Amino acid sequence: MEFSELIRTGQAQAELLRGPEMPPLRGTLCVTGHHLLLSPGPQATPDLWLLLLRSVDSIEKRVAGDAGTITLRCKDLRVLQLDIEGVEATLDIARSIEALSSLESVITSFPFFYRPKGLRLGESWHFHPPERYYKRVARETRAWRLSEANEDFSLCPSYPRAVIVPRTVDDDALARSARFRQGGRFPVLSYYHAPSGTVLLRSSQPLTGPQKRRCAEDEELLQAVLAGARPGARGFIVDTRSAQAAKQARMTGGGTEAKSAYPGWKRLHRPLEREGACILVHGAEGTDSTLLVTSLAQLILDPLSRTMAGFQELIEREWIQAGHPFQLRCAHSAFSHTRPKHEAPIFLLFLDCVWQLGRQFPLSLEFGEGMLLALFDHSYASPFGTFLCNSEKERCLCEVRTRTHSLWSGLNQPKEQRKLRNPLYAPNPLAIWPSVEPQSLRLWQGLFLRWTHPPEPSEVAWEKVWQIATDQEKTEGSQPTDSASEPQP
Amino acid sequence: MSYLSSTHIYPIIVENVKLLDRYVGKKPANGSLYLTATHLIYMEASGAARKETWIALHHIATVEKLSITSLGCPLILRCKNFRVAHFVLESDVVCHEVYISLLKLSQPALHEDLYAFSYNPKSSKEMRENGWKLIDPISDFGRMGLPNRYWTITDANRNYEICSTYPPDIVVPKSVTLGTVVGSSKFRSKERVPVLSYLYKENNAAICRCSQPLSGFYTRCIDDELLLEAISQTNPGSQFMYVVDTRPKLNAMANRAAGKGYEKEDNYSNIRFRFMGIENIHVMRSSLQKLLEGTGISPGEFLSGLESSGWLRHIKAIMDAGIFIAKAVKVEKTNVLVHCSDGWDRTAQVCSVASILLDPFYRTFKGLMVREQPIPNSVIPDVNHCLSLPLFASLRCGHLDGDSKEVSPIFTQFLDCIWQLMEQFPCAFEFNENFLLEIHDHVFSCQFGNFLGNCQKDREDLRIYEKTHSVWPFLVQRKPDFRNPLYKGFTVYGVLNPSTLSHPFLQQAQGLSCFASPCIADIISISLAMEILTTRPPGNSLSLIGKSHLAMVYNPLNMLLHSVGYYIVEDFCIYIHKAY
């Protein structure tokens, strides 16, 4: 195994400081291919302290006398300090961690070796196939169809094999539209809003360029969207960039839809009031802010996406399958010294927005803060394969589905539920419009101060909420109750 | 003079009034405005629920009449509980009439015009009198184990001869003579002699309070030195006593020139002297003004407004002082004597915060009420801990038309401190945020007698106990609304040890602005924001806090959200409901 070449020292004696509220740990420190281990020694408890090397964001070493100190800053914002006996040992361990934590290769990463008890490989990758959602929409509306034009990823390398498009547009037209959009990301359906019969679409920017090129098939596609929606429906193109940035993009070959070429559609660079219209969302590449906006919109509108299963499905469909480049964006986190320009906490931004929603509507989300924290942690470093690679195409090449475990199967185990679920959940059939007044937005302490605040008070509170909710269920089970607890925002 | 001014016939009714809502997508409601002798009531004309908005006239801080617009004549009310109501009336003449009436009614010139003197909840005389007896501060001293072999409760101040702003009963060391107490009082500003505020039964460490000494540069007072020595000796387990001056050192030194000042360590045996750096009432007042001005704009402006208001820095200073005292009592097992200038604002705040940290009793309904009890027997004046409120309730809260320089949000800050603690220890308090809000409302509503007058003597002179009702029975009745469903009981938490570390709140919420607008900053700038957010100062960040960053996470006491976060409030109520 090639890891052995990177491991310079097998082990050393060390003391680990984990933060202001935690007692230090002493024992034997050991670097393996994927982990940093601290074994407290035979006399103490057999509990191992374990850190996935992938989650190390930056490493600092200092030596003084015959001892050294390594400070590890992790992608989950934790800061760890290791006091190690021996200068050589310190330097060797630091070098080993440095090398192993920044391995680029996907197929040697830990998910390909992780074989937990109780889970069988390959059985859970069918938890949330987007095709299921697309088929349902196609069935309900009759205006949309599932296309396999991208079966070999030739139209768009960052889209999944199956996409959903207007029924009246054929695969050849899709191919032409794909050539007119950056990265081949032609407009596809993101969400069908049944109550108003309108749809949410996403794409990348059109390649109009300085010559103001047009593409007849692309125009037809958007025309077909309006024709398939409820009669008289209008369309809005929400460009997530500022008007000026969109204009500048034209110089580099990008741009925006020309008003005259897309009758029935209106372009905007600002948020919309509530009205029943079709929406196409895009920024530049259509893999970042675009997904952020479309997935948030669905959480606000769609009660199903606020359930545990629905939320997982949403992330699978609107982030993972939709081609958010997790590997590029989450390669490093806040502490990294180098700052590759592809790296950005877009997904964290989404999770924070969901947290704000959950705080404003404490009853309306089936999942709790624990779920959001888990998603944050796993998107940056995980034993599961779900967030590996940048697109479905890459995941197929690496055989992620057959050779790693799915995060969803890990999270859906019964033992995880008390941590992840919101005990106060009561299904809310309405749209949940959040307040975006500056006073209404708060710092997500549970994430940003997770390692600096003592955890007990909030853990105790969470337990108490569970207890109240469980007790209440018991009493409700014995006598019928009214449904007065439905939120009415 | 009767409360109803003879020149007006009530209620005044105005039809076709709009109440503007700041929320996007919400059309202004249309309804009627009723001006009664005590409240301004707005009733929506349509809608299933016919929403009603009640504003107590005493809550109104300012009334503003703007120039006429296409919608009509705007009338803006700003309330002391931070509500802002924006009405639009049809006719300029009517608007002016309402404006003039409100100006007159919202700030009566005499105590007798306050609502409390006309409020009649249809309860018998006996119930009213029992209401005043509901909370008995003397029994709290019993709970602390007083009197004991070191401390005695004396009614030496029964005629307010020692100190006019103290209650009749005070707790002083058993070993000193009345002459020493009187002698020391002559050496203290406003005669506020050192007396006991809280005794930590477990180790005999006491928190005492007083005002600044009239020491100037050289003056000494043997009686005062004797009294401090005696206080120190009530705790044989400790070799010294802290004397805490809650003011910034500079302010205290300036007072020296005026013949006041602070204790010189050399003149007293075994005292350790500390400054706490809490600003005075004028700084606090302008801080609150800035805080309120800064609300309701873009996230960036809101946060920089919040920071520049300094409000959180002040809250932090008060909490840090409280924590210092609590630790001195619990860990170092020493007595602490606390004062500021007159000993009725900052001193009250920090003594109250310290006792809430130390004693789980004050985190219950009964305990908080005792702490806030401004009345009779409370040995320590204002405050009985709390709040300066009692003492200076009338002045600090601006009930009467008077000197606006004396108004200061001392009590609001105290409630904010409790709120901060509730945020950090969600299971440690028997009551919830609504209870704090309700108390805050009643401090200004003047519906009950508790918060009228500036001290015990004032309240007796005004015959408050004979003519008005007490707020506590009223709140006790509504206890189910105010209960914290997460409360884990009296015994679970002993001494609270809150964090007052800072963190750079500002960058965070800029990253969040995407929530309000799909124009998302480009990915690089978001990464930078996140980097700044997570780069915390190494080690103890206290020095940094003083210079710039916000002291604590802050959601301005939800009071601010009265007018802002209607979703939140509703969903929160459902949450409480469901919790039962």
Task: Describe the protein's architecture and organization.
The complex is a heterodimer of chains A (489) and B (580). With 489 residues, chain A is α+β, with helices and mostly antiparallel strands. Chain A is built from 17 helices and 14 strands. A seven-stranded antiparallel sheet of chain A has the order 4-3-2-1-7-6-5, with helices on one face. In chain A, a hairpin with a 7-residue loop joins strand 1 (11-17) and strand 2 (25-31). In chain A, helix 7 runs parallel beside helix 10 (346-360). The longest helix of chain A is centred in the C-terminal third of the chain and has 23 residues, at 456-478. Chain A is globular. The N and C termini of chain A lie far apart (58 Å). Chain B has helices spanning 92-106, 125-133, 137-143, 178-186, 222-233, 249-257, 281-293, 299-309, 311-330, 346-358, 365-372, 389-397, 410-424, 433-445, 456-461, 464-467, 471-477, 479-482, 505-511, 523-534, 542-547, 566-579, and strands at residues 12-19, 29-35, 39-44, 52-56, 60-65, 73-79, 84-89, 151-154, 170-173, 195-200, 205-210, 241-245, 271-275, 335-339. Residues 1-6, 374-393 and 503-580 of chain B have low confidence and may be disordered. Chain B is an alpha+beta fold and 580 residues long. In chain B, helix 4 crosses helix 5 (222-233). Chain B folds into three domains: 12-106, Pleckstrin-homology domain (PH domain)/Phosphotyrosine-binding domain (PTB) (PH-domain like, Roll), CATH 2.30.29.30; 145-482, no CATH class; 506-577, no CATH class. Chain B is built from 22 helices and 14 strands. In chain B, strand 6 (73-79) and strand 7 form a beta hairpin. Chain B is elongated, with a radius of gyration of 25 Å. In chain B, the strands form three sheets. A seven-stranded antiparallel sheet of chain B has the order 4-3-2-1-7-6-5, with helices on one face. In chain B, strands 10-11-14-12-13 form a five-stranded mixed sheet, with helices on one face. At the A-B interface, helix 7, helix 10 and helix 17 of A face helix 8, helix 19, helix 20 and helix 22 of B.
